[in-house]
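Let us practice reading a record.
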Amino acid sequence: MNRIRTARLTRREFLSKSIAGALLVSQRPLFALGDATQFPFEVVPPEKSGIRWVHSAAHSPEKYLPESSGPGVAFLDYDNDGWMDIYLVNSGKCDFFTPTKPLRNALYKNNRDGTFTDVTEKAGVIGGGFGQGVAVGDYDGDGLPDIYVTQYGSSILYHNNGDGTFTDVTAKAGVAAPGWASGAVWFDYDNDGRLDLFVARFADFSKELNKPCGIHEDGLRHYCIPKAYSPMACWLFHNNGDGTFTDVSKESGIASHLGKAWGVVATDINNDGLMDLFVSNDTVPNFLYVNHGNGKFEEIGEIAGIAYSADGVARSGMGVDSADVDQDGFMDLYVANINYQDYSLYRNNHDETFDDAAGPEGIASSTYLMSGWGLKFFDFDNDGNLDLFQADGHPDDLIDQMHLQVTYAERPMLFQWDGKGFRNISGQSGPVFNQRLAARGLAIGDFNNDGATDVLIGVNDGAPVLLRNSAGAQNHWLGIKLVGTKSNRDAIGARITYQAQDLKRSRMKVGGGSYLSSHDPRIVLGIGKREKVDWVEIKWPRPSGKTERLTDLPIDRYITVVEGQGKWTYARPDPSS
C-alpha cells in the first residue's frame, strides 16, 4: 500500500486521463428502471435494517499497520432458512491494542422483512482477537456453513452446530495460522470432494517490529508503506475429512514464495478442472498459483503477465476477482491497487498468459486516483452481462493533508458491461456513488430474495453500509443453489451455462474473491426481458465432473440443484408455501 506515492504522469498525461474518465462517467447508463426517480442501489439505514454494530479500527498515534486494513464482511445463510444473514468482523485485543470496552464481531439473523436481529452472543461467534476477514464454507459437508475468521495474531474456525450455535474448533482442526492472516478462501484443490483452506498472510509484523517510518513533510506520523516489512509465506491446509486439517504449505509449493498477501480468489484459468489461485500482494509481485493436480502448485505470475504493472513495477494489490468477462470460455482476472497505479483487468489469452485490458476498457482512467479494496463481478441489472462493483478508500487516514486529488474516504464505483466493454456509470447511479467511505471488505448477496443482488460494504472504523439493489428485479432471472454430493458440498468450481432465447451465457462458481469477504453462495442468472430459460447445464467439479442439463425451469425464483439427481426443486423459501 504505497500510501504517499507521488504521481509520475506529466500534467498533460494526468489531464488526458482525467478527461477520459470524465467522459466515461458522463455516458448514459444502459439500465432503465420503472420509476425514473429510482437508482440502481439505495442505502438501507441502521434504523430500518436494525444493524447498529460499528467497526473499531483501534486507530492510535503509533499507527500500527493492522489498524488500517479491516474489516471483512459476509453474507451467509447460517440457519438454512433460505434468507441471507450477515457476519461482520471487528478488531480486538492484541499485543498493541487493549480496548477500553469489549469489542466483538457480529452475526445478524435475517428476519425476512428487511430487518436483522443481532444473535452473536447466542451463536457464540464473538471473535476474540484483532479480526481482519471472513471466509464461509461447509468444510465437513453436513449442509451447514462454517465460518473462518482471519485475524492478526491467530485465526478462528467456527463449526456450525445446526441449532443456531457455533463451536470454536480451531485447535482441533489445526488451522490457527499464527501471524497476520488476511484473506482466506475455501476450495477443493485436490478434487477429493472436501473443501480445503488457503489463508493469505501479510507481512511480518508485531508491536516490537512497528517502524517509525511514517513521518512526512507535514510533520505527522502516517501509516508505513509495507515495503518496510518483510514478506511471509501463505498457508494451505488440506482437509483430512475427519474435522482436522494438515498444513501442506511447504510440500504444495505455496510456502516457497514469500509475499504480502491481501486478496485471493480460487478459479480455473486453464480449464483443466483444477482450481488455481490468484493472490494480490502489496509492494511485491502478485502470485498466480497454477494447480498441477498432484498436490503441487507452480507460481507463474511473472510468466503469465499478472505479477507487475506494464512498467515492470510491483504494485499494491488489494481486492481481486475472477470471471469470464468476455464470454470466451476462459476465466479472466481483476486486481485493484493503490492510487496512481491503475487497476488491472487481465484478459485470458488461453495459454496461461494474460493481457491487461484495463486501459482500453476505460477502467484504468476511472480508477487512477482511487485505492481499491472490496470488489465483485456480478450482473446487477439481470440483463445477462457481468458488471463490476468496487469499494474504495485510501489506507492512510491523513492522506488528505498530503494530496489535493487523493482522499482517505472515497466513492464506490459501478461499471456496466455494454457488450463491448465496461462503462463507468457511477455518476448517474444515485447518491450511493457520491457517498465517501473508508471502504474495505465487500460482499454480494440477495438479502430480500427478490433476485436483485445486494451489496454489503465494510467500513474501517465505521458502520457497515447495506445497499439494496433496485435494478435487478426489473428484469427476469433464475437463482440457483448448487449442492455437491461427490464434489465439494459448496460446488466451488462448478460451471453453469444457460440459454434464454438468443441469450447464452456461462458462469463459474469461484471461491472467494473481493477483499477479506464472503458471498451469497447462490448464483443469479439474469435473462433481461425474456420470459423463459430454455435450459441450464451444470458441469460439476471433480471428482464427479458430471454434466447435467435441466429444462422446464421457472423464472424469478430460486431453485436447488443437487448433484446427480438430474432435477431441480424450489429452494427455501418455497414460493408455494
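A brief commentary: Confidence is low (pLDDT under 50) at residues 1-29.
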